[in-house]
Amino acid sequence: MTLHADALALLQGWAAPSPAQERLRRRYVEHLRAHPDGLDRGCRPDHLTASTLVLDTSRDAVLLTLHAKAHRWFQLGGHCEPVDESLAGAALREAREESGIGGLVLDPVPVQLSEHPVPFCGPDGDVHHLDVRFVAVAPPGSGSTVSEESLDVRWWPADALPEPQPDLVELVELARARAQSSSSLGGGSRRAAADHPIR
């Protein structure tokens, strides 16, 4: 199965958590049906991207990156690449590359969709990223490294985000709820204390 076919099948079958998310799901599906290159960064003015919100094992802290170009705190993620065979795989690859953490456990079902303009994505003016967001849990004791795409990467309390924009707050809430209930993420086996320092 190609990446495009995987993304289309995934989004066609995804159960959106709200009417707003359902509207985005339909928008993404229409985009993919109209654009065989709809996941390529060269597809203008819109293309799909993949990202991951990384949680610690307590589900009480999230790993965010201070984006080098946007100068804002985001979940880990980015563009799909030719090596990617699935959207979930792209999200996991990006999370590993940007965090330096091996052993991330990813839920392969998206938790949130987010469409947003990105003025720094190429020379042709604003591009819309149609982001597909997943959740992963880091192994106990995970530190992190800073990639060339970031100014900083650090753990934050889930209830004290550095830039609590509504979109990010919703993502954290959806991701924590999924992690608690997902057997693939070890739902129901919370640790009593954080397993890394929160700065």
- CA-based gyration radius: 16 Å
String of helices and strands:
HHEEEEHEEEH
Q: Low-confidence parts, pLDDT < 50 over ≥5 residues?
A: 189-199
**Strand tally:** 7
**Full CATH superfamily name:** Nucleoside Triphosphate Pyrophosphohydrolase
Work out the helix count: 4
* Strand percentage: 25-35%
What is the 3D form?
Answer: globular
- Helix fraction by DSSP (H/I, runs of at least 4): 25-40%
Number of domains: 1
Distance between the termini: 42 Å
Q: What is the structural class?
A: alpha+beta
3D architecture notes:
Helix 1 runs antiparallel to helix 2 (19-34). The chain starts with a helix and ends in an 18-residue tail after the last helix. It has one domain (3-185): Nucleoside Triphosphate Pyrophosphohydrolase (Alpha-Beta Complex), CATH 3.90.79. 28% of the residues lie in helices and 28% in strands. Strands 1, 2, 3, 4, 5, 6 and 7 form a 7-stranded mixed β-sheet that branches. Strand 5 (105-118) and strand 6 form a beta hairpin. The protein is an alpha+beta fold.
